[in-house]
Amino acid sequence: MSHSQRSERARYDDNDGEEYETITFTQIDLPSTRLQLNPHHYLYRVKRGEMKKVMAQHIKIGDLVYVMRDGETATEAVLDTKTVYKAIEGESQILDGVIIVNNVLVSYKN
Questions:
Q1: Which listed residue, 36, 68, 81, 106, has the most CB atoms within 10 A of its CB?
Q2: Does the CA dihedral 44-56-87-21 come out positive or negative?
Q3: pLDDT reported for residue 50
Q4: pLDDT-based confidence at 86, cuts 50/70/90?
Q5: Residue 17, pLDDT score
Q6: 80-87/19-29 β-pairing
Q7: Are 28 and 63 a contacting pair, CB within 8 Å?
Q8: DSSP per residue, the chain
Q9: Please, what are the domains in the chain?
Q10: How far apart are CA 27 and CA 82, in angstroms?
Q11: What angle do CA 35, 86, 75 make, to 5 degrees?
Q12: Which superkingdom, per the lineage (predicted)?
């Protein structure tokens, strides 16, 4: 994975002197779910009636993104977005492709 496609990482020292590593995620709140994605994962946004791939870090409040509802695609408006930091629990093994996360259509290209 190229550096440009990795989330930002930081090391922190907590009060007892132990270091831990965090990774940056983009949190996206929708009416039906909340996602925390690598900022470089793609979501499918509706713009001018067309489906466009957009990096999670570029999704804005009010954007319409594709979700799965009862086995069919639908759209939902983004309610909120923010950057969050989480301790690393493992690396994603997704190399390339389209996946569904919390019923939202996302994609990743390594």
A1: 106
A2: positive
A3: 92
A4: confident
A5: 65
A6: antiparallel
A7: no
A8: --GGGSPPEEEEE-TTS-EEEEEEEEEEE-SS-EEEE-TTSEEEEEETTEEEEEEGGG--TT-EEEEEETTEEEEEE--EEEEEEEE--------EEEEEETTEEEEEE-
A9: 3-109 (2.170.16.10)
A10: 5
A11: 10
A12: Eukaryota
pTM value is 0.69
- Amino acid 74 reads A
Name the β-bridge partners of 46.
51, 64
Residue type for position 60: K
Q: What is the pLDDT averaged over residues 88-98?
A: 53
User: 65 near 43, Cβ under 8 Å?
Assistant: yes
